Amino acid sequence: MDFKPALPDFIQALPKTETHLHFEGALPLELLQRVRPEFCRPPASWAPDFKFRNFEHFEAELLDMAFTWYTSPERYHEAGRLIFARHLGQNVKYVETSFASGVIEFLGLDGREVLEAIRSAVPAGLEVRVFLGIHHNGASAKMRPVLEDALAWPGLAGFDLHGTESLPLEPWTAEYWEEARRAGKYTKAYAGEFMGADFVRLILDEVRPQRIEHGVRAVEDPALVAELVRRGIGLDVCPISNHKLMPGLTLPDHPIRQLFDAGVQVTVSTDDPISFGSTLNDEYAALATQRGFSRRELARLARHGFEVSLLTAAQQQPWLGRLDEMIGASSGG
Ligand SMILES: [Zn+2]
User: Fold this and answer.
1) I need a surface site. Which of 45, 63, 214, 222 has the fewest CB within 10 A?
2) From ligand 1's centre to the CA of 296, what distance in Å?
3) What's the Cα-to-Cα distance from 118 to each of 56, 63, 82, rounded to whole Å?
4) Ligand 1 mean position to 328 CA, how many Å?
5) Residues designated catalytic
6) For the residues of 172-223, what is the DSSP string, one character each?
7) Distance from the alpha carbon of residue 55 to the mean position of ligand 1, in angstroms
8) Where are the domains of the chain?
9) What is the mean pLDDT of each run of 10 residues along the chain (333 residues)?
10) What's the pTM?
């Protein structure tokens, strides 16, 4: 007899990664409630069909929540223990998360202490790589020495270009990203959510990140999509975040389908769960129920996450092997 587990059980059983997660945006609701009792009810943006007016609306709400909790390295650590425990609970094996240089700057925190606070919260059974997120205009006079110093922080996996896409791309950026790679750091950049395929191409040509965060509007340019496939540039996509934030886009017409079908290494993440109210399992479930991803395709999405990860081949192997078994067992979807 052919036994097919229920969809939630199948998703839970997939070994997974999460490679696009803003640490401040992952603030657990119970910690927010401790400092802001008015959040006894979750934010309105947790409603399934909530739409933010624009990026600024989203960012203002997120920072309002994040700034009341993240005031010290100890609080980063406390949040990390809860955030990573939830990953383990969803059978997530590998996480990339970034903390924001802008928050460090605003609160006057020591970046190295925040980095170690996050790293020391990682439980056994989970691999975590921590990135520093820097906005287009993040190299202020105050931050420049910190950014220079960060190139040599041993526990820092890399850098991620963040923030409002439409702000000018300043000349320091390409140089800094190049320096980071020379220092052995991995580089990512956010592009192609509010700005179109041209901006993704500009970022690829000038900043030359090894992976793109979101990048979904690359779909507008078939030549760019082909280039992403040819160069093996992964896109860390967050479907529910896009559904609630991108103008004119909803889950049933999300371009992750076309990108996946074209062979782009798309991965699945939650982005900022305190704003969007989704878990990683919710993201996979939404792709199955609203974007027609079969179980075999969900397992292939999970596989992409390990393929683009910074894990060694030996570390990837058990999870790729398990996913291949699940892909083989999911004949007919
Ligand atoms: Zn993001």
Assistant:
1) 222
2) 26
3) 27, 19, 11
4) 32
5) 193
6) HHHHHHHHHHHTT-EEEEEESSSS-HHHHHHHHHHT--SEEEE-GGGGG-HH
7) 11
8) 7-329
9) 81 98 98 96 97 96 96 98 98 98 93 98 98 96 95 97 92 97 98 96 97 98 98 98 96 98 98 98 98 98 98 98 94 58
10) 0.97
